[in-house]
């Protein structure tokens, strides 16, 4: 088996560069956020809450622009039955950052939370926080797996090694990056990451476009040359499926710890909003070279290249179209630079998700649910241990699941259906309680899992209107795989049902207990009668006492409430955004 020495050297150089930046950032900021009684564990999670616009804008953009983003976008533009019309991630995630900045960043940052799960545990209790940790963890693991899968595919093209081996090697490097330092190392390596992706891809695109085997992409966008046009189209029968997936990306891209980790590390609530808007623009800009590379792949006569007579789609290698184009359509020195830069760059996305998952476990599960008296050093060691465990889980997912885009959609599914409606309720709806939260969780989970998941080979037990049986042909083996495709927008329906169940059951249990129709002794979750029981955590354990929050954000002005204010937390939508959610629930 041939080893491409130049490509290996390029990877090593870029890995060393990112590793050096990570170590330098950890050393430079080793005391940031720790002074004045601060905790080392919290500094690892959210830095010193002093991330500025420059580094913050890069690191928040890099939250989404990783291996899955650039490889997945190129893959869907290239696929004959999909094309640009179905490459929804750039606009979907850009809009998720805009919506997150407009409505969610300010209330979360101004209340000084440390993780995304803090408001849930604060209002719904530690047991409900533990339940919500499960889909949040799965989302981070799937996301990390998508990154590792994409990076493994890229590495296997460069150095011609087994893809499973390259995924394992990549995972080990990602775990090591995460242990080098906390959020500071992640943030500063993200700056290097985006520069590497930008330079590596844009240097390669002109060479690939000028290759004799590539037809004019402006022609192949609308006319079939070697395959169907790469612009793609949305058939009328698929419009609801397209809309369902788009809303999944747009709204399901908000309730992620990797996003709120950046929001909560911003130096102010206003900065957190600005960072979200900057990152939305950055996501769109960084998608352009991936779209072009996918279009180039669809416009290439592969028989004229060193790749071989069969195109990638006929070898079931569509998910590797980006490294294949760089490897076979560019001069060696260009392709090795581009592939090396991209390979090293996307690595720093994996440490972000693994750090997010370990932060939630160490704080919201280990410390707040089981070991309230745990020392700061103990929490740091728990984080280090879980980094290894979650890294191993992500690696297993990367090895066992197929398409990069499939991993991507799957990672947003449970977050979208379960956590997003819960986040809406805890921040903006007055009067929701633990009973409603449990009901919403169950409704969303059953309706979503009931629809099945082809990527996990999970058959449906709920057949929604418009379902069809599809077949997938494995070109290399000739095997035919049949699966059920749900064309009804059941994911968005599951999300809405989860939200409505939360609100309805919260008000129902509130009425039943307060009217006396149910005895107070049956309030076993202490969610209505005993609101200030031990189950509802003291705010002082959840909100940091040493956050850099400006005074104007700490001075909420209670407005006169109309009919909407009876049910909606209007202060969360105001510019103040500093009042904590339990203040409103206490009024009900």
Summarize this structure as a short list of keywords or feature phrases.
588 residues, mainly alpha, Sodium/glucose cotransporter, 2 domains, two-stranded antiparallel ribbon, 23 helices, 2 strands, disordered C terminus, neurotransmitter biosynthesis, transmembrane helix, transport, ion transport
Structural class: mainly alpha
Largest sheet: 2 strands, antiparallel
Low-confidence stretches: 532-561, 577-588
Distance, first to last CA: 70 Å
The appropriate CATH architecture of the largest domain is Up-down Bundle
Structural overview:
With 588 residues, the chain is mostly helical. The chain is 64% helix and 2% strand. It has 23 helices and two strands. α3 crosses α13, α4 runs parallel beside α13 (269-298) and α14 runs antiparallel to α15 (332-370).
Short description:
Belongs to the sodium:solute symporter (SSF) (TC 2.A.21) family. By secondary structure, the chain is mainly α.
Write the layout of secondary structure elements.
Blueprint: H1 5-28, H2 40-46, H3 53-64, H4 67-78, H5 89-110, H6 118-124, H7 126-159, H8 163-180, H9 183-209, H10 217-220, H11 239-252, H12 257-265, H13 269-298, H14 321-329, H15 332-370, H16 376-400, H17 404-428, H18 434-450, E1 468-473, E2 480-485, H19 490-514, H20 539-542, H21 563-567, H22 570-573, H23 581-585
Helix pairs in contact: 1-9, 1-15, 3-9, 3-12, 3-13, 4-7, 4-13, 4-17, 5-11, 5-12, 5-13, 6-7, 7-8, 7-14, 7-15, 7-16, 7-17, 8-15, 8-16, 9-13, 9-15, 11-17, 12-13, 13-14, 14-15, 15-16, 17-18, 17-19, 18-19
């Amino acid at each position: 088996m041939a080893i491409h020495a130049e490509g290996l050297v390029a990877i090593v150089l870029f890995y060393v560069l990112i590793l050096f930046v990570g170590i330098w950032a950890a050393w430079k900021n080793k005391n940031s956020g720790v002074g004045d009684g601060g905790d080392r564990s919290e500094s690892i999670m959210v830095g010193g809450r002093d991330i500025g616009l420059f580094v913050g804008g890069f690191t928040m953009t890099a939250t989404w622009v990783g291996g899955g983003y650039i490889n997945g976008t190129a893959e869907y533009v290239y696929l004959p039955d999909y094309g640009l019309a179905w490459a929804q991630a750039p606009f979907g995630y850009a809009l998720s950052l805009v919506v997150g900045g407009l409505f969610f960043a300010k209330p979360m940052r101004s209340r000084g939370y440390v993780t995304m799960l803090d408001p849930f545990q604060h209002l719904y209790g530690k047991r409900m926080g533990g339940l919500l940790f499960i889909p949040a963890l799965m989302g981070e693991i799937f996301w990390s797996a998508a990154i590792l899968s994409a990076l493994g595919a890229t590495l296997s093209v460069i150095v011609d090694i087994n893809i499973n081996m390259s995924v394992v090697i990549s995972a080990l490097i990602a775990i090591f990056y995460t242990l080098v330092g906390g959020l500071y190392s992640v943030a500063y390596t993200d700056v290097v990451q985006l520069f590497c992706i930008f330079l590596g891809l844009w240097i390669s695109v002109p060479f690939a476009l000028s290759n004799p085997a590539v037809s004019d992409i402006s022609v192949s966008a609308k006319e079939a040359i070697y395959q169907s046009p790469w612009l793609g189209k949305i058939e009328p029968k698929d419009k609801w499926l397209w809309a369902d997936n788009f809303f999944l990306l747009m709204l399901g891209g908000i309730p992620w710890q990797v996003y709120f980790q950046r929001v909560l590390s911003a130096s102010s609530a206003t900065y957190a909003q600005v960072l979200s808007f900057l990152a939305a623009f950055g996501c769109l800009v960084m998608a352009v070279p991936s779209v072009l590379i996918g279009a180039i792949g669809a416009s290439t006569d592969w028989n004229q290249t060193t790749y071989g007579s069969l195109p990638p789609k006929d070898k079931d290698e569509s998910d590797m179209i980006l490294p294949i184009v760089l490897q076979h359509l560019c001069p060696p020195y260009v392709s090795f630079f581009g592939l090396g830069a991209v390979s090293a760059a996307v690595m720093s996305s994996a440490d972000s998700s693994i750090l997010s998952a370990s932060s939630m476990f160490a704080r919201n599960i280990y410390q707040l649910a089981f070991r309230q008296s745990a020392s700061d050093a103990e929490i740091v060691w728990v984080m280090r241990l879980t980094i290894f465990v979650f890294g191993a889980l992500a690696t297993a997912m990367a090895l066992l699941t197929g398409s990069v885009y499939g991993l991507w959609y799957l990672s947003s599914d449970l977050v979208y259906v379960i956590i997003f409606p819960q986040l809406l309720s805890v921040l903006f709806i007055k009067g929701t309680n633990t009973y409603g939260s449990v009901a919403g969780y169950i409704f969303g989970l059953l309706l979503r899992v009931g629809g099945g998941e082809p990527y996990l080979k999970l058959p449906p037990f709920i057949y929604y209107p418009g379902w069809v049986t599809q077949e997938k042909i494995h070109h290399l083996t000739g095997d035919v795989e049949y699966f059920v495709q749900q064309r009804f927008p059941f994911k968005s329906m599951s999300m809405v049902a989860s939200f409505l169940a939360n609100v309805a059951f919260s008000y129902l249990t509130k009425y039943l207990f307060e009217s006396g129709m149910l005895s107070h002794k049956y309030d076993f979750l202490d969610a209505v009668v005993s609101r200030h029981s031990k189950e509802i955590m003291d705010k002082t354990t959840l909100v940091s006492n040493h956050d850099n929050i400006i005074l104007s954000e700490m001075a909420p002005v209670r407005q006169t409430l109309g009919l909407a204010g009876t049910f909606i937390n209007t202060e969360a939508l105001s510019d103040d955004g500093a009042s904590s959610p339990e203040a409103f629930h206490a009024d009900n």
